[in-house]
Write a structure and sequence with these properties.
Blueprint: E1 8-11, E2 15-18, H1 24-30, H2 35-55, H3 58-61, H4 66-75, H5 81-88, H6 92-102, H7 108-126, H8 130-162, H9 167-220, E3 224-226, E4 235-237
Antiparallel strand pairs: 1-2, 3-4
Length: 238
């Protein structure tokens, strides 16, 4: 053959084509009706992954200099209701810090409870659609396996009717079995990788938000002091 790396596959009507040159539509068609839910899963996985990677940008969820900005307002006596409203509209971390500031006069425990209440809501929003993405990663190879089983059932049915001498008749079922398996794995692998990456990103953001909110609680209740470093970006132990 001229193309040594191409693999020859049999399809319906005993035609042979090179997989490397096969149009996508013909490959999908050879997989049978099980390719429809597999394709739907691929579209959903791509949409969820793209939306979550865009939404869960660290600069938008938990800006690194946000707590330092609050320190500046506190030192300059500029922390009023307008600043708290601005902070609440800034980002999820801003809403967590704003909840703590609004309840800072009610004691440390009440302040921490208000922070935890808002933080739990923000974490729920950050994890939106991740369960669906994980489900797709788990279900896609199972649908591919189901397509394989259906294809092999067709193969054995044809063997019972026509015997083993009609290779062209059996090619359709074998093709369907192989294509659906490959398609299911091709969707499940990147979906699983994206799910793990996004879950890791959420975990890192949650840890950072927890650290920043604890610094705020400790400073407002006298257990820490605001550092005098550039732009007052962090707090140090008392």
């Amino acid at each position: 053959m001229d193309h040594a790396c191409a693999k020859v596959a049999a399809i319906n009507h005993n035609k042979f084509i090179l997989l490397g040159d096969c149009p996508v539509f013909e490959i999908i068609q050879s997989g049978g009706w099980m390719m429809i839910p597999i394709i739907i899963c691929s579209v959903l996985a791509a949409a969820i992954s793209g939306e979550r990677f865009w939404t869960l940008r660290t600069s938008q969820i938990a800006p690194a200099n946000l707590l330092g900005q609050v320190w500046g307002w506190m030192k300059n006596n500029q922390l009023d209701s307008a600043r708290i409203k601005e902070l609440r509209e800034n980002s999820p971390l801003g809403r967590v810090l704003a909840a703590g500031l609004m309840n800072s006069k009610h004691g440390r425990d009440i302040m921490k409870e208000s922070i935890q209440e808002v933080a739990s809501h923000e974490i729920h929003d950050m994890e939106r659609y991740l369960n669906a993405l994980g489900t797709i990663a788990a279900v896609a190879p199972l649908m591919g396996l189901l397509g394989t089983v259906i294809g092999m059932i067709k193969v054995f049915s044809e063997i019972m009717l026509a015997g083993t001498g009609q290779a062209g008749v059996l090619a359709g079922g074998i093709s369907e079995a192989l294509v659906t398996t490959a398609a299911g794995l091709a969707i499940a692998i990147p979906a699983l990788i994206c799910h793990r990456m996004l879950q890791r990103r959420v975990d890192e953001v949650v840890v950072f938000m927890e650290q920043e909110s604890l610094k705020l609680v400790d400073v407002l209740h006298g257990e820490r002091e605001v550092a005098d470093g550039p732009e007052n970006k962090q707090a140090i132990g008392a």
